[in-house]
Specification:
By secondary structure, the chain is mainly α. The protein is built from 16 helices and no strands. It starts with a helix and ends with a helix.
């Protein structure tokens, strides 16, 4: 496969996953604030910590209030990682590859893109917050289902898989890191109703609350949240599940190219880290340091995959 095509597929998948992830973050934070009266002056500011965008936000917005953060995350065309900009970037990457993806995928992607061009804060006001993000979530679910149901398991599919799974694993690590250290409640809140709702919101941000309850019941403990989001091999949005899919796709691409697997030992190290640990182990040893290493290894795998299969020089 030509490197240019591989790069377009990889980035289209990353941008789609990024847009979907940010939509869940905004939607969940909005409903959490309705359920739990915020104890902080700026309850929307932590989202900027999760995505690492405090500085670019501060350059253009005076306060991290609801209107500003929602606009920055959702509609802001000057923010290259906003939901709207990510959808446009995904569509741009796919536009020259229509012969390599299913017609159903292109139609759904194009419909979402055309809708997003008409978005504005007034759209949110007229539709209502819940209805807007429910409709957006259904678009993402439709695209994911179409990809799974209509595309052959060939190299095109593998590069879509590599992009999506890499973005997903990285996002889960960032979410947990910020929640555990920056959003940790006051000492008197730990274990109380507010703390439980905060951790339930983390699970909802990863679409993991129902899966968690099936495994552990309704009592939410931090170690169990870390376990399902990082180490559960069966939950499709966990870091381990994502990295296993990522490394399998990289192995198939390497085999087709007749070369070694992409990014050894970085890819293997990342998978070994997730297979060889438990939530209790990493919390005791230092969750923050562990998650930073996960983020570093995700970046290393991305760089290696780009150099091996996508770089044009």
């Amino acid at each position: 496969m030509l490197r240019r095509i591989a790069g377009h597929l990889f980035w289209a998948a990353r941008y789609l996953e990024r847009a979907q992830w940010r939509a869940r973050l905004v939607d969940v934070n909005y409903h959490l604030i309705l359920e739990v009266p915020p104890r902080d002056a700026d309850p929307w500011e932590p989202l900027l910590g999760i995505t690492g965008e405090r500085e670019p936000f501060a350059q253009r917005y005076a306060h991290a209030d609801e209107a500003s953060v929602v606009n920055f995350f959702t509609f802001d065309q000057e923010n290259p990682s906003s939901i709207r900009a990510s959808i446009e970037a995904a569509r741009t990457n796919l536009s020259s590859l229509r012969h390599m993806i299913s017609s159903e995928m292109w139609l759904e992607m194009n419909e979402l893109y055309l809708e997003s061009r008409e978005w504005s804060p007034r759209t949110l006001e007229s539709k209502g917050f819940a209805a807007f993000f429910t409709e957006l979530r259904n678009h993402f679910y439709a695209i994911t289902g179409i990809v799974r149901s209509t595309m052959p398991r060939d190299l095109s599919y593998d590069f879509l898989e590599i992009g999506a799974m890499l973005e997903r694993a990285d996002n889960v690590g960032r979410l947990l890191d910020v929640k555990y250290h920056y959003l940790m409640p006051r000492l008197e809140d730990i274990g109380g109703p507010s703390d439980g709702r905060q951790w339930a919101a983390v699970l909802r941000s990863a679409s993991a609350l129902e899966a968690f309850r099936k495994l552990y019941g309704y009592a939410i403990r931090v170690d169990r949240v870390v376990e399902i989001l990082l180490f559960d091999a069966s939950f499709p949005r966990s870091a381990r599940f994502s990295v296993e899919r990522l490394t399998a796709a990289l192995a198939r691409v390497a085999a087709s190219a007749g070369g070694p697997a992409a990014a050894p030992p970085a890819g293997e190290k990342l998978l070994t880290m997730l297979k060889g640990n438990t939530a209790s182990d990493v919390i005791v040893a230092g969750l923050h340091e562990y998650l930073l290493e996960i983020e570093h290894e995700c970046a290393a795998v991305s760089d290696a995959a780009y150099a091996d299969y996508m770089a044009l020089d």
